[in-house]
Amino acid sequence: MKIGVPKEIKNHEYRVGMVPGSVRELVNRGHEVFVETEAGAGIGMRDADYESVGARILPSAAEVFDTAEMIVKVKEPQAVERAMLREDHTLFTYLHLAPDAPQTEDLVNSGATCIAYETVTDTRGRLPLLAPMSEVAGRLSIQAGAACLEKSRGGSGVLLGGVPGVEPGKVVIIGGGTVGLNSAQMAIGLGARVVILDRNVEVLRFLDATFESRIETIYSSADTIERHLRDADLLVGGVLIPGAAAPKLVAREDLSKMKPGSVLVDVAIDQGGCFETSQPTTHAEPTYVVDGIVHYCVANMPGAVPRTSTFALNNATLPFTVQLAEKGAKQAMLDNPHLLEGLNVHHGMVTYEDVARDLGYDYVPAREALAS
Description:
By secondary structure, this protein is α/β, with parallel strands linked by helices. The chain folds into two domains: about 1-120 and about 305-370, NAD(P)-binding Rossmann-like Domain (Rossmann fold); about 130-300, Rossmann fold. The chain contains 14 helices and 15 strands. The protein has an eight-stranded mixed sheet, with helices on both faces. Strands 9-8-7-10-11-13-12 form a seven-stranded mixed sheet, with helices on both faces. Helix 6 (about 130-150) packs parallel to helix 7 (about 180-190) and helix 10 (about 305-325) packs across helix 11 (about 330-335). The longest helix has 22 residues, at about 305-325. About 55% of the residues are buried. The model has no long low-confidence stretch (mean pLDDT about 95).
C-alpha cells in the first residue's frame, strides 16, 4: 500500500502522523511511505531521518495526497486538506466529527473512508488511540491551569501548591476517566487540594483506592458541581461520551458563583466542550475571559508537547496502521471489530451513530456501509 504522511497545518500543531520507526516497520513489510518535507521538524525529525528508513520525501501535501492510498495524520483535516481527499482514499486520524458540521459535510462529499482514532475500541470497550493523548492532555491541564492562575495572565494569583502557612489551591476535576486520573496525578504532585466528580461509583472507588486520602471523590450531579465550583481555583472538564458531543455541565450563569480569576480548562473542547461558555482556542491565543473567569480551551492541547505526544500516539496507532496497510481498509475492519468501531464516514455515508444523530445524518451501520 502507498501511505502518505502530510505535515500538520493546524495552528501550532507540531505533531506528525508517523515517526521514522513506524515508517521503517511499514517499509520492511513491503509498503511505500511518502512523507511531506519537514513533516517531522516539529519533533526534531529531519527528512533524512525518514529517508534513512525508506520513506520518500515529497515537496507538498498535494503530492502526498495525490500519491497515497492511505493518509495517516494526527489532527482532523483542515478545509484545504479535505478538498484533496478522493473516494479511493482511506483517512486515519483524529476526527471529532460530532461538533464539526463543516468537516463532516466535506468528508461525506469526498467519498473517502474516514477512520477516527478516537472511536477505535479494545476488548474492554476502552479507547486505546484516544488514551495516550488523554493522558497528555490531563497532565497538561494542570500545568496550563497553574500558569493561567498567575495574575499577569488574568488569574487570581493563587499558587496551587501553596506554601507553609498558606492553604493550597483547590482543583476540581469533572470526569474520572483517563483525563481525570492524569489531571489528579499532576495536581497532587503540585500539592493542590483535589476533588474529582464522576457519575460512575466504580470509577470513584478506583480513584479512591488509587490516591487513598490525597483526593476527595464526589458523585457528580448538578448540585455537587455547583457546590464545588464555588471555591475552585482551577476547574478541569474531562467528560467524554465516545464519538458524541460533550454534555454541557457548567452553564454561563454558574460563572458568577465562582471566585474571580478562577480558571476553567476544557479538555473536552475537541468534542464541543463541557462548559457552556467554551469556545475553541489555539496555542497562539490560548485563553479568554468570560465574567471574570479565565477559559483555556485549546483544541489540540497535546500539540504543546509534540515530541512526547507523537511517540505516545504512534505506540498506539502503529498496530492498526499495519493492519490497514496489510489487508486494505475494508478487510482490516471486517476482520477487527475494534477497528471497525473507528469507521465514521464511508463513501458518503455516516457510519457512527452518535455523529449521525448529533448532525442530522441518516445512520448507516459500519458493516452495512462496507457491504454496499
